[in-house]
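Exercise: predict the structure of this protein bound to nicotinamide-adenine-dinucleotide.
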Amino acid sequence: MRTRAAVAVESGSPMEIMEVNLEGPKAGEVLVEIKATGLCHTDDFTLSGADPEGAFPSILGHEGAGVVVEVGAGVTSLEVGDHVIPLYTPECRECDYCLNPKTNLCQKIRTTQGAGLMPDGTSRFSMLDGTPILHYMGCSTFSNYTVLPEIALAKVRKDAPFDKICYIGCGVTTGIGAVINTAKAEIGNRSIVFGLGGIGLNVIQGLRLSGADQIVGVDLNPGKVEMATRFGMTDFVNPSEVEGDLVAHLVELTGGGADYTFDATGNVGVMRTALEAAHKGWGESIIIGVAPAGAEISTRPFQLVTGRSWRGTAFGGARGRTDVPKIVDWYMNGKIEIDPMITHTMPLEDINKGFELMHKGESIRSVVLY
Ligand code: NAD
Ligand code: DAO
Ligand code: ZN
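Solution:
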């Protein structure tokens, strides 16, 4: 079939909207009509050329929601008409990683997914002249129709709106999961969130769910304060307005350091500040942000010797096929909020404008509606 897609032809250039060829699903695969997709900082990072795994031409996008149109041979858990959310972290439920409760990093299709291919080592997308186009994070939601492995799709309830639940495919789950699954934050915790964008706001939302006593938000952009406060931020710190040492300021503000700190900026300098603002003896710092290729983190080892720990999280530690339908229920039952964070919607033709809004810091989440 043919489908309309935003193709990342080369790094550093706007995506091009075009018709592309899409082959049907092979064994174990599913054809999905994407109804809505969010624009995440990570798509922008890959398009910029800073992503070490980035390869072109490709169809980016990993935060979508849609409907199953066709299933390939051997698919048993999904049928035509099911509503689904694509998973860039799949859940096969049988690999060593899926069987280990300490991780969500299913490895079943890791090699081919990282190379932009389906599990059989080929792509389903091509240009009209036959040039292959790579998949992205196994999802490629910047195409109206896409093919995914069955293990990379969470089946969700049919009454949930696509234009909101697409955000659960990355930002919501990553932020809330970092608190609930990775930090396992206790009632009464004091925490600091660095970066109040699409991920950081959901960390704040997760901290509120956890029963935090203090939620400090740190961002260079004061325009983020209103939304962060609405989601539960109790104190705001703009590093550019702090006189003297930022770590010392944050340690004092939290009464000795935070129980948990979260980096949602991808800046390695911020990651160091986050680690050092964690409480001596027990504070944990969780890295969510993805740093540019080749970047390294550093601190004095004594920071760890004295009881702080440094951790990381992908997709909020969530097991997608199991956890994502539950998060959709949380949204539908009013336990979490999504709507105010979707600040802009647009047709696929305007997708590059959505990334311009992100660059200017004017959006939280832009969503493309097909
Ligand atoms: P975003 O651009 O919406 O938000 C980033 C925020 O950080 C902005 O508000 C910006 O003003 C702030 N910021 C930037 N530099 C800062 C600094 N030095 N000090 C304080 N604040 C600063 O991005 P996002 O969509 O929220 O993504 C955040 C990060 O999370 C990105 O690196 C993204 O790639 C990563 N991410 C990770 C995962 C994962 O599974 N680990 C999933 C999705 C996104
Ligand atoms: O190596 O097993 C693996 C999986 C690595 C992918 C983890 C992705 C999380 C960070 C990227 C942000 C996605 C939006
Ligand atoms: Zn697995």
